[in-house]
Write a structure and sequence with these properties.
This protein has about 90 residues and is an alpha+beta fold. Helices cover about 30% and strands about 20% of the residues. It has one domain (about 5-75). Belongs to the UPF0386 family.
Length: about 90
């Protein structure tokens, strides 16, 4: 599956325990999102376009209106990246 660099970056953050908060407008359509890392910082690379592509590929999921998290399929598709938290 072809996954762009920004999509990989977002999936990596979600795999490490992050989540995506979503806001809805007047209707059921999602109008704004915020990608939050495990430490509580906001990832600026995650925009509405990347979010929709990840949802369309079923790499992220939300259950009962909770924040979006990585799905099992997303965990299988994310590539390993060096984790620089120990440095």
């Amino acid at each position: 599956m072809n996954i762009s660099r920004n999509e990989q970056r977002v999936l990596h953050v979600l795999a490490l325990g992050g989540h995506i908060l979503h806001e809805r407008g007047d209707g059921p359509k999602i109008t704004a999102i915020t990608c939050v890392t495990r430490e509580g910082t906001i990832l600026s690379d995650c925009d509405l376009d990347v979010f929709h592509r990840l949802r369309k590929k079923r790499l992220i999921e939300s259950r009962s209106g909770s924040p979006y998290r990585i799905s099992k399929r997303g965990r299988l598709c994310v590539r390993a990246q060096p984790d620089n938290q120990g440095a």
